[in-house]
Amino acid sequence: MTMDFEHFGHKVYSTISQNKNNQNVFLSPASIALAMSMCTVGARQETLKQMLNVFGVPSIDDLTKTAEKVMHIFSIADNDKQVKLKLANRLYAQKAYKLQQDYLSLVQNSFKADIKLEDFENNSDHVVQTINTWVEEQTNKLIQNLLSKNDVSRDTRLIIVNCIYFKGTWLKQFEESSTNQNADFHESNGKISKIKLMYKKEKYAYAENNDLNVQIAHLPYKSDNHDVQFVFTVILPKQDVSLDEVERKLTSKPELMQQVLSRQNTTTQELLLYLPKFKMEATFVLNDVLIQLGMVNAFSGGKADFTGIVSEEDDRNGLYISKVIHKAFIDVNEQGEFVYNYEV
């Protein structure tokens, strides 16, 4: 991802993790950033200013260029037979609701989004079913009932859906016979839990970062592509260094994340690599998080200005964001990793 989206992702993650009190947090910054970018490019006046400020960019043009770079990576990976990486953006708008032509052109060209017209006003239950069916199709039925009837009302005018799907196979797969089915895992709160722990003795790109006091290992995925490399990066705090401390430094100094992800400071070393085998699913309503970061007006019916999406003449009540739902799932096992994320 580009720096703008990375920094935005750090801020979102940091804000969520502060409220989670040592609970596991998993989310997709790219999914959240792309969905909110599609909202931002339709904002105007103070609403636009606040949203651009959270992204850390000066203009819609700069934000669009960032999004296009991310979309380009997905398009390159689309031809890779070893890695499955899919992105889908879709807008559901109220039937006969006149969206600004410039906005439609922008989201179609820069975000590759398609537009569907639905009747929220008279048949919101059907719209929920339609969106959920599309989501199921995009994820091979792995995500079902993403939206409930309570998420959509007859007053809903626009729903933006973003989906990211990733399935990768380790270049050097773990042997299932080497997995400890009953290993001890020491949590940050001192608790010891039982987990499945994978093991492999293999050569990997390895580094240590003294600013963070961590060990870093890069686990590559099989790929046909030489332009884009997909890597699973593991960051392990050294003994007596808390994960909270590492996360705080990464959030306050974004350049440290660049160092962590970079292969420039690594050496190829034979490692005794132990990696938990795990599945994690998370659902977040991000309204409060985004408001806390500074997107205040966008969520206010009286203050939001999205006249770049629909003109005041066509929507007397004014468009605003009523709910941002983010759903993420990850499965890390001996064969590789499977991830899907949805943003509504």
From TrEMBL:
<dbReference type="InterPro" id="IPR042185">
    <property type="entry name" value="Serpin_sf_2"/>
</dbReference>
<protein>
    <recommendedName>
        <fullName>Serpin domain-containing protein</fullName>
    </recommendedName>
</protein>
<dbReference type="GO" id="GO:0005615">
    <property type="term" value="C:extracellular space"/>
</dbReference>
<dbReference type="InterPro" id="IPR042178">
    <property type="entry name" value="Serpin_sf_1"/>
</dbReference>
<dbReference type="GO" id="GO:0004867">
    <property type="term" value="F:serine-type endopeptidase inhibitor activity"/>
</dbReference>
<dbReference type="Pfam" id="PF00079">
    <property type="entry name" value="Serpin"/>
</dbReference>
<dbReference type="InterPro" id="IPR036186">
    <property type="entry name" value="Serpin_sf"/>
</dbReference>
<dbReference type="InterPro" id="IPR000215">
    <property type="entry name" value="Serpin_fam"/>
</dbReference>
<comment type="similarity">
    <text>Belongs to the serpin family.</text>
</comment>
<feature type="domain" description="Serpin">
    <location>
        <begin position="10"/>
        <end position="342"/>
    </location>
</feature>
<dbReference type="InterPro" id="IPR023796">
    <property type="entry name" value="Serpin_dom"/>
</dbReference>
